[in-house]
Design a protein that fits this description.
about 1000 residues; alpha+beta; four-stranded antiparallel β-sheet; three-stranded antiparallel β-sheet; about 45% helix
Length: about 1000
């Protein structure tokens, strides 16, 4: 690099510093890398070509990233990229270690005394971070411009007084207000145009500060001096020519020079002009002048495409132009289809030179999709020509596709029109639509006449997704023919694309690079059957299995948890669940509607339940009058504790499936059954309007970014909620007291607090998202034959809601919707379409999706509900519609005779389930392993056990149901004298550690096997 090209003084020794008064200097070493040094107010390196400050530890990365960059220039009132790239001044750098070289050179010349004086990304030289280096304390407001740094005009300022925040984007100002001025941003306008230009030290650590000068300047920055072009190799020359042709096909877009260009550089967008270019303009440039390149060794061979190919491209563009609005609306779904293939085309065609798997913007997505359409339709036409009976080798060649006679006929008809000297556009578009309909939507889908080929493109999926009412249907609701094509497209993409090129469809083109990109497979509806890559799910089967599981969980609780003391309906009437009263304003610590954090977990319902167990002699409960203790059977209690864990794992999928649009697993793990602290509300509630219970969730994944916390109401059907209510109210106290004896001493305080506040905890262990996913996966695999996870069921629920939810706007519900719409738009009359669009937004909010995500991923045209009004009335409408679509009743409804008979059969089976001898031995072995005790000698252990039984044995008269039973009593508590009494369940303790989690899983497997053996014809039971 010539020294004369640098505008800053060159320093050769420390003495020159006395004669040079500038703030920016350079040395011969710095100049070789295109760097200079800013001396005041910081000692920091500058890249004089990029006009950016560079922290010392970022020098190597900056120089490497600028290799062979093509700088955009200001031409004809717009930013444009030159045809041939100008080599960057950094191309001569080989390897790294530039930072060490620069530091040593500055110290040697005496410019800096210590290496630590140079500013790094971790230190700004004033004790602060580099990111905060541009605060007003460091730069007076406004400060003189720092030499060597770029000036940005048309900047924006935060409108809040006394806020020193500048940026280059209006959206950034809005995000800044919401994050740092929440509650004040409504008092000020959206943004304020800065009166001064701004600067920043480093674009990756952008903190802008105003400088002196006028912000009304326009035009480009001073262009850097020309750098002599290096001699290019033939291969590089071919690459530059191909890039030049691509740039000539893309229109230039007029924009603000400085702010627009460098704003895109900050966002790391490689082609910013594609973001703003109109799709119609890009498609209109697809004319006959576009040429096809074929790279052959060291020379460039320019060829014009065949006339039929040009006509086909014209037809595709015409059809695309007719559906531009639809393409823009569903561009993200097109992107998903393209990325599912995992293909990266590297053909020499100018209109195909794009990587399909990196499409981002609407323009680039449709560009890739249209190029792909032209290419694949041309291949299909060539295939049809080769399959003609008169074609040589027609019986042996072209085995890539398996087409029916009708499809071949329409492809030949289309090719005949394309070969005409004068293209008939009307006839061509009609033939094109007929050919596509025959290819991708065959009327006869019978196995003998099906025309599903192994590698189909996704042609015209978007243009055929138009409903009669004008509303589009997203690709997840596609027809079975398209769905099958999409699936095979994803599976056979790699092999088939290689077959196409081996068949010489594009003579002279190199084989493409094929890359596997893992994406979630598409799902589609065929009537009431949902097709996924894992299997098929029938809605009728899902509803019936869901109801069957509800009956089984009721039978399991009645038999194994309530110990046969009564049915669920009996408990509902006994404890008055239908008449619950929930004081939602009570913020006292430990208060809850289904559980109360009292000493000993005591409540009236549990006391009554415990008394019923003692009176019936269940679990070996009895009073030892001599010691004033409540004794029990340890083995029976261990089995009961394992049943409680199993019952909660059976109950969770039903709660997750029926709570309305499901939330995330991280949200469910935070559910609180009581107020953890004073003023912090619980999540488990009773809704008097819906006459059922559920959860009031204030968890939202994007709350930290948006600054808005939405309350989401999730209610389950009454019968499922009553089971969860009894689990928390009468089962949890006894479970918690007994399970606490099985955990380590140093963990008992934590586990005790978790039992009092958390919903999902069992066996003395808090649940994780893995437990939630495993429960759903076990249920779906055994009931439906597919393996669901939390994420996959969220995907299913979105498709289910899109297809099945039907909202009924009546009475106060329609008034609440209209009231919300009044806030959003000033209209007196609300149409049904507007209400439906608004309710779709409520559904997506309950699922945790923003309207933008819902619109791009699931094809919803929604209205942003936001957090402006209380959505509980609308959420109740969604929940009622969701329960109706599942075939469940939201409020209490007694079982019919048929359902009661089915539940009785399940209950009889559960009554027969007992632990085997192997389970007993594993249980005691797991107890020893969990407590950390060493395995004892069997004979010694047996003697100790017998001796203990002699001391603690007590007999009671036989009852009508049971014979004489021996029970074991444990000590009242550590440090407590025998004979002392404790309140309620406080006397229930265990002297032996119980069953481990692994053994409990083995017990569940045994239950499954016995259920399958005892199932009767016509009434198949779902294993647990």
């Amino acid at each position: 690099m010539e020294p004369s090209s640098c505008p800053f003084p060159l320093i050769s020794c420390a003495d020159d510093l006395n004669t040079v008064g500038g703030d920016v200097i350079t040395t011969s070493c710095l100049l070789s890398y295109g760097l200079c040094l800013l001396r005041r107010p910081f000692t920091i390196l500058l890249c004089w070509r990029c006009k950016d400050a560079i922290p010392l530890n970022c020098v190597d990365k900056h120089l490497k990233s600028e290799k062979w960059g093509r700088t955009m220039v200001w031409q004809n009132g717009a930013w444009a990229r030159p045809a041939l790239g100008t080599p960057s001044p950094h191309v001569a750098i080989k390897g790294g270690h530039v930072a060490e070289t620069v530091k040593a050179n500055l110290v040697e010349l005496g410019i800096i005394k210590e290496e630590g004086e140079l500013m790094t990304a971790k230190d700004d030289g004033t004790g602060g971070k580099f990111r905060e280096a541009a605060v007003p304390q460091c730069f007076p407001n406004p400060s003189p411009p720092l030499p060597g740094l770029r000036l940005y005009t048309d900047a924006f300022q935060c409108p809040v007084p006394e806020c020193s925040y500048w940026c280059l984007s209006k959206d950034t100002v809005k995000k800044h207000r919401q994050k740092y001025h929440n509650g004040q941003h409504a008092l000020y306008p959206g943004y304020k145009v800065s009166d001064h230009p701004v600067q920043c030290l480093y674009s990756n650590y952008a903190r802008y500060f105003p400088v002196q000068g006028s912000a009304q300047t326009s035009g480009p920055l001073p262009a850097p001096e020309e750098v002599p072009l290096v001699r290019l190799s033939p291969a590089d020359l071919i690459e530059h020519q191909r890039q030049a042709m691509l740039c000539s096909l893309v229109p230039q877009v007029a924009s603000q020079p400085e702010a627009d260009y460098y704003r895109h550089l900050k966002d790391r967008r490689l082609q910013p002009y594609l973001e703003s270019s109109k799709i119609e303009g890009w498609l209109s440039r697809w004319d006959d002048r576009a040429e096809v390149f074929h790279a052959r060794q060291d020379h460039l061979d320019l060829k014009r495409p065949p006339p039929a190919f040009v006509n086909l491209r014209r037809l595709v563009v015409l059809v695309f132009l007719e559906n531009t609005a639809l393409l823009e609306k569903t561009h993200h779904n097109i992107q998903l289809m393209l990325t599912n293939s995992g293909l990266v085309f590297d053909t020499p065609c100018a209109d195909l030179h794009c990587s399909l798997h990196i499409t981002r913007s609407r323009a680039r997505t449709i560009q890739a999709y249209s190029a792909y359409e032209v290419h694949m339709l041309w291949v299909l036409c060539q295939h049809a020509l080769a399959k003609r009976p008169s074609a040589p080798g027609s019986k042996t060649r072209w085995d890539v596709f398996q087409l029916a006679a009708e499809q071949l006929r329409w492809l030949l008809e289309l090719h005949k029109i394309l070969e005409a000297k004068v293209l008939d556009e009307a006839a061509g578009k009609a033939a094109l639509r007929q050919a596509v309909a025959a290819l991708y939507f065959p009327k006869d889908l019978s196995p003998g006449n099906t025309s599903v080929f192994d590698f189909p493109p996704v042609a015209y999926i978007i243009t055929t997704i138009i409903d009669r009412d004008g509303a589009y249907i997203h690709p997840h609701l596609m027809t079975p023919g398209i769905a099958k094509l999409s699936y095979s497209f994803r599976v056979h993409a790699n092999w088939q694309i290689a077959q196409l090129h081996r068949a010489a469809c594009t003579p002279g083109a190199p084989e493409p690079q094929v890359e596997n990109v893992v994406r979630e497979g598409l799902s589609w509806w065929s009537g009431d059957v949902l097709h996924t890559e894992d299997g098929e799910i029938s809605l009728a089967t899902f509803r019936s299995k869901l109801w069957q599981s509800a009956l089984e969980i009721e039978a399991f609780y009645e038999s194994r948890i309530f110990m046969g003391l009564g049915s669920l309906d009996d408990f509902i009437k006994l404890f008055g669940v239908t008449e619950l009263v929930d004081d939602l304003n009570n913020s006292e610590k430990g208060f809850g509607v289904s559980h109360e954090n009292r000493p000993g977990h005591k409540n009236e319902e549990f006391s009554l339940f415990l008394q019923m167990l003692v009176d019936g002699g269940h679990l070996g409960f009895a009073y030892n009058d001599t010691r004033s203790q409540l004794v029990y059977d340890v083995d029976a209690m261990d089995t009961w504790l394992a049943d409680v864990d199993l019952a909660l794992r059976m109950l969770y999928p039903l709660i997750h499936f029926t709570q309305g649009p499901p939330g995330r697993g991280t949200e469910e793990l935070t559910l609180q059954i009581t107020n953890p602290e004073r003023g912090v509300k619980r999540n488990v509630i009773w809704d008097p309007i819906m006459q059922t219970g559920g959860f009031n969730c204030d968890y939202q994944k994007t709350s930290a970014r948006v600054g808005v916390l939405s309350n989401i109401l999730r209610l389950v059907p009454f019968r499922i909620f009553s089971i969860a209510h009894f689990h928390m109210r009468i089962v949890r106290p006894m479970e918690a007291t007994y399970a606490l004896m099985k955990v380590k001493q140093n963990q008992r305080i934590t586990i005790s607090a978790a039992y009092s506040t958390q919903f999902y905890i069992s066996n003395g262990r808090l649940w994780t998202t893995e437990d939630l996913s495993t429960s759903i996966a076990n249920w779906s695999q055994r009931a439906l034959g597919v393996t669901w996870t939390l994420r996959s069921f969220r995907h299913f629920s979105a498709l289910f809601a899109r297809k099945e939810l039907q909202f009924e706007f009546t009475g106060p519900e329609v008034e609440s919707v209209d009231k919300a719409l009044d806030i959003m738009q000033a209209k007196e009359k609300k149409s049904q379409v507007e209400r439906l669009r608004y309710m779709n937004g409520i559904v997506d909010t309950m699922r945790g999706h923003s309207p933008g995500v819902a619109g791009t991923h699931y094809g919803r045209e929604v209205a942003d509900g936001g957090a402006r009004v209380d959505h509980r009335a609308q959420q109740r409408v969604v929940i009622r519609a969701y329960h109706k679509a599942l075939g469940l009743s939201t409020t209490y409804r007694p079982l019919g005779d048929e359902d009661a008979a089915r539940k009785e059969k399940y209950r009889e089976r559960f009554d027969k389930l007992v632990l085997s001898e192997e389970d007993e031995e594993s249980k005691w072995e797991g107890a020893r392993n969990r407590t950390g005790k060493k395995k004892k000698n069997k004979k010694k252990e047996k003697n100790e056990k017998n001796e203990k039984n002699k001391q603690n044995k007590t007999c009671r008269p036989p009852s009508a149901k049971q014979g004489p039973t021996c029970r074991k009593s444990g000590p009242v508590a550590q440090g407590q004298e025998p004979g002392a009494e404790r309140e309620g369940i406080g006397a229930l303790v265990s002297a032996v550690a119980g069953m481990s989690i692994e053994v409990a899983a083995g017990v569940r497997d045994r239950y499954d096997s016995e259920l399958s053996e005892s199932s009767e014809d016509g009434d198949e039971a779902i294993p647990l």
